[in-house]
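Summary of Year 1 activities. Much of the first year was spent building the evaluation harness for sequence design. The harness presents a backbone, in tokenized form, and records the residue chosen at every position. We chose the following record to illustrate the format because it has been used consistently in internal testing since the harness was completed.
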């Protein structure tokens, strides 16, 4: 077999040969060495090729975080295919749209999702379904335990024409000898779907070269604290998401260990940190808040973690402060997007980073902060829309020329991605998130950041989540209204109390005029707050009055 160093699998294979006996993945208490993981991936690749998957074919991956997910991702790449990972909570409606958009003919699903796939098949280009049981790559005694005590969810799979079991498919290829790898470089490695703010998710093609550049840069962000090959990463972020990939999955390209859980369970995660001596944890701000408020937190030893990392949303300053007080270590933040293949800015490890900073610009990216209307540079230190360029970079959405034209612009001979995020940068190069451009509230002639209001509310010890929106008003442009979720044990707190809290922390024109309490707030399938749903609800209310 010939190897190509600009192919993701080639990099993994080189690490796998060098560290064959080292632990690559920990899943449900079982350790998988690099040698075993490589063998499993090549068996799956041989199975795909046997089914007719050719280089460049797109293969959907529709299962939870697991060793199966990792084997399949590597196997698809080894077969020369293009991986299309999607969230396992998608419905047939979502499956139909994405399968037709990317033209996939093959899908790997969990047995619990097979019913959704079967319901979607006739309306898609899908021809082959591979169903995986979430225990079939575990040792026999764990499978038996799971069966006897009914602790592994099981779904019914109708095997027949075009339907295959993952285990039986791999069993046919115990001694795989896959063909040489195709070229990597600027060829597609995968297509990640991002929800964004539009009706349908947008496909973002990621090349081998872009992934390798971004992943290496981001997984080595903690190198000053932890040698990469000694790192044990608890990847709480979903593997279908760019955060889970570049800050978790990427550790397999530098010789580290990825500890993955099929779903977030605080006790399992905290016990796993202590049991496996985790060195790095990845999480969104909401997860860090949940940990701080967990009733049994004192039962777990989390001292092995040297690098706590948060991304996906702005970390409330109150959470960062409480974390440092509790554990004596900071939570490092990062900022990125699917379209930039993850990190644009990351807080340097081992340095004192300013509160609210999402870090400094990473080496592979160039940025500008511009006036969103005219794309002219904003004055130094002033907020504006962040645009990002790199080499290599994503240049277009899949099959969406109008979306591409809105989001990608050429300036001074370079292609730039418009993030639609309002940011500012200080004199030392630290980047600060201000707001989404579409989420700026226009109140009494001022432009008010919804995120700033939400951050102030979330600093209140009784508040677990907040959302601020502008409600159209002829007199003031937009009135500021906030929706708040309280901790379950809180009684007697009123909207007036929270408004008074905001008056102590915000300029008068930024204080919400109304507070509405909710049991929960709408979020996307990757956990992002959906302010647009709240705005649409307010618009419908106004129209019905």
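For this record, the design step produced the sequence shown next.
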């Amino acid at each position: 077999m010939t190897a190509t160093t600009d192919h993701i699998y080639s990099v993994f294979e080189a690490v796998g040969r060098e560290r064959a006996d080292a632990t690559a993945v920990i899943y449900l208490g079982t350790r998988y060495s690099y040698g075993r993981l490589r063998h499993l991936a090549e068996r799956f690749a041989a199975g795909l090729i046997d089914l007719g998957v050719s280089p460049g074919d797109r293969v959907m991956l529709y299962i939870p975080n697991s060793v199966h997910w990792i084997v399949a991702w590597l196997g698809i790449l080894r077969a020369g295919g293009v991986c299309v990972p999607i969230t396992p909570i998608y419905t047939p409606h979502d499956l139909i749209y994405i399968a037709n958009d990317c033209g996939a003919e093959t899908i790997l699903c969990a047995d619990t999702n097979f019913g959704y796939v079967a319901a979607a098949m006739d309306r898609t280009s899908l021809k082959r379904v591979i169903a995986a049981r979430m225990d079939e790559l575990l040792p026999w005694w764990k499978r038996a335990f799971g069966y006897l005590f009914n602790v592994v969810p099981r779904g019914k799979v109708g095997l027949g024409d075009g339907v295959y079991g993952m285990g039986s498919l791999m069993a046919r290829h115990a001694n795989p000898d896959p063909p040489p790898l195709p070229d990597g470089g600027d060829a597609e490695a995968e297509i990640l779907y991002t929800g964004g703010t539009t009706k349908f998710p947008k496909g973002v093609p990621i090349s081998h070269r872009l992934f390798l550049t971004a992943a290496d840069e981001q997984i080595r962000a903690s190198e000053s604290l932890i040698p990469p090959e000694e790192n044990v990463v608890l990847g709480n972020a979903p593997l279908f998401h760019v955060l889970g990939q570049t800050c978790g999955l990427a550790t397999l390209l530098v010789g580290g260990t990825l500890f993955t859980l099929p779903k977030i369970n605080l006790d399992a995660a905290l016990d796993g940190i202590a049991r496996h001596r985790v060195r790095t944890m990845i999480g969104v701000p909401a997860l860090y808040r949940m940990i701080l408020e967990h009733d049994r937190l004192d039962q777990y030893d989390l001292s092995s973690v040297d690098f706590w990392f948060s991304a996906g949303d702005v970390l409330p300053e109150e959470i960062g402060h409480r974390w440092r007080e509790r554990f004596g270590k900071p939570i490092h933040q990062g900022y990125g997007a699917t379209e930039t293949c993850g990190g644009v800015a990351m807080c340097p490890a081992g340095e004192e980073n300013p509160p609210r900073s999402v870090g400094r610009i990473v080496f592979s990216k160039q940025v500008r902060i511009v006036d969103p209307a005219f794309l002219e540079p904003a004055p130094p230190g002033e907020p504006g829309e962040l645009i990002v360029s790199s080499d290599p970079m994503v240049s277009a959405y899949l099959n969406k020329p109008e979306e591409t034209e809105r989001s990608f612009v050429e300036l001074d001979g370079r292609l730039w991605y418009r993030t639609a995020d309002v940011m500012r940068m200080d004199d030392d190069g630290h980047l600060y998130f201000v707001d989404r451009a579409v989420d700026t509230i226009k109140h009494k002639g001022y432009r008010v950041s919804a995120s700033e209001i939400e951050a102030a509310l979330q600093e209140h010890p009784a508040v677990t989540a907040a959302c601020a929106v502008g409600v159209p008003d002829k007199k003031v442009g937009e009135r500021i209204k906030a929706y708040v979720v309280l901790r379950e044990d809180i009684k007697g707190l009123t909207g007036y109390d929270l408004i008074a809290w905001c008056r102590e922390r915000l300029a008068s024109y930024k204080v919400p005029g109304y507070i509405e309490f909710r049991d929960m707030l709408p979020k996307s399938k990757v956990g992002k707050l959906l302010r647009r749903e709240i705005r649409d609800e307010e618009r419908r209310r106004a129209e019905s009055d």
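The first strand starts at residue 23 and ends at 27. Quantitative recovery figures across the full test set are reported in Table 2.
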